[in-house]
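Researcher: Here's the sequence for the chain we discussed earlier.
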Amino acid sequence: MSQTETINTEKKSKKSLVKSGLVLSLMTFASRIMGLIREMTKAAFLGTSAYADAFGIAFMIPNLFRRLFAENAVSVAFIPTFRGYIEEEKELSDPDQKNLKHSETQVFISSTLTLVSFLTAVITVIGIFCAQWIVPLFFSKDTTPHVLDEATLLTRIMFPYLFVISVAAFFQGVLNGESIFAPSGFTPVLFNGIVVLVTYALTPQLVELQKGQNLSYEALAARAMSIGVITGGCFQALFQWPFVKKTGWKTTITGLKNAFTNPGTRKVVHLIIPTIVGMAAYQLNDLVSTALAGKVATGTVAALQYSLRLQELILGIFAVSIGTVILPDLSGLAKRKAWDEYNDLMVSAVKIITLITIPVTFYSLVCGKDLISLLYKTRNFTDESVTATLAVFNFHIAGLFFIAVNRIITPAFYAQSNTKLPTLSGIISMIANIILAIVLSFPLKGPGIALALTLASAINTLFLFIFMRKMQSMDYKGLAKKMSLYVLKMITFSAIACVPTYFVRPVLLNFFEGHNRFISYGLPTLGTALIFGITGILLLLIFQDKSAKTLLGKVLRKGRK
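Model: Thanks. This is the structure I predict for it:
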């Protein structure tokens, strides 16, 4: 191949990568929006009732195993091994050898599917059988037997989700291994949409069928939503199957002996075991927090989930998007050992994240009640539900800056092929979160669990900066100093912008009161956001903030590409 052809191939590859990245970014954003709509649906039907907690706990249990096995197996173990088979086949020139390697790859695919199906089926059966003993661990002793029974039923309905989503994850692995990303990127959007549709369609049917029985509307809605979850999981797998078929790979089952002894599957198991141990430590966070939330007060699990969904949406729109624009340059600078430029970009990235997250945090603290009411307040999501969710959200949103900064600094370590230090920092943060959640949950209830997460995120940030001292290429002193000064500057600007927002807010709420929530809360939210934003922009212009100019330049350049 000539040099010109090589360059053209590289250009096409980069274009394809950029296109795939853009598609995945759009799909991720759409998934977050649909995830929020799913939570809005849950809020409408379940509110912060005991059945909302029951649904949240029942869904969390199989979801925990999904994160441990399905996601890890695909990203860490299956895709690299599968790609290895494909690359080996490409390197062969003899047709017979290529056919032989292709057959070996097909056997590996069938063996992996068999292994995944068998293991998740076994766990699913055990989970369904043991649900009556697992579920009470997440509730307080004074929880009524009826709520426990419903939570057990919901767990049994949704536990098969582990099986179907693992098969879906396997299909995703095959597609991603063949550099096909769009179908898998769409499946979370599809899943959330189906959960919403089934909940709205099935709840009235269950209410009609159960007339005369002593079952509340919320309990029946939780059942409908649970059926939506398992239905959505099935569609995630079924939707990807035709695309897998188009690749030419067969999704067949082989004998268990062949599955367990296949060299490829043995390699997958060898790769995944260490990551399961590490991932289990992180998932312990969710497990402990959910268990504590279920014990402190009714509605706490639901309030935490509503609050986290809103925080994730804000984080996805702002912090993750900005990180996506800036961070790819870090790896290139690290490879060239251009450390001065590397540190300058780090300072710029952290400043831009500060420029976004600090003002958003202040605005959310002033207008959080309006945001929650706009998104969730309907049907069974009452004023009490708004108050409970707001109490949690105020502590969650306070950690937005730390979570966003961690997502900037951690990849900076990865850019230099250092995974140990950020992992160690994450483990320290996890331990801190568990201890703080235990200490704070009973005096402060839900807000205490949210505060524990925020403090743990701050601890993670602190240790990342401490560990920078071990990286000679990172100017941690300069970054810490410049970041501290800029954080103080943004806090000052945000506090000033809050003043007109605070006084205008009640006027707008009174003016639009008495309409549906999109008018009563949506228009005041839009108005206060404009006032807050205009005030903040004026301050940035007056003081000629360089980070705001850098952010604008990055976004404009990204839009022209």
